[in-house]
Amino acid sequence: MVDRCLNPTDCLDPEDLAEIVTLPADDPRRRHVDTCPRCRTLARRYRDFLELVPLPPEADAEAAGRMLRQRLTTALPD
To answer: pTM value?
Structure first.
């Protein structure tokens, strides 16, 4: 089993994770995700990506955008 889990050619396609993470726990593809370190990490990252994490109250996205634009304008020649 360990060899299979460490061999990406036997792992599931990352594009299928959206479907696989919703499958019942006894589905073979879901069991693979739950036992394979590579697929388990991909699934965790997929779930993290989907979670909406609000900006902290002190974050100022508009100011950060202005600062980024200013630095890019300064750093990049015309």
So the answer is: 0.56
CA 40 to the chain's CA centroid: 11
Question: What is the Cα Rg of the chain in Å?
Answer: 20
Q: DSSP letter at 58?
A: T
| Tens of each residue's pLDDT in the chain, 78 residues | 444 455 566 788 888 888 988 899 999 999 999 899 999 999 999 988 888 888 888 889 899 999 999 999 888 876
CB 5 within 8 A of CB 12: no
State whether the Cα torsion 27-33-35-43 is positive or negative. negative
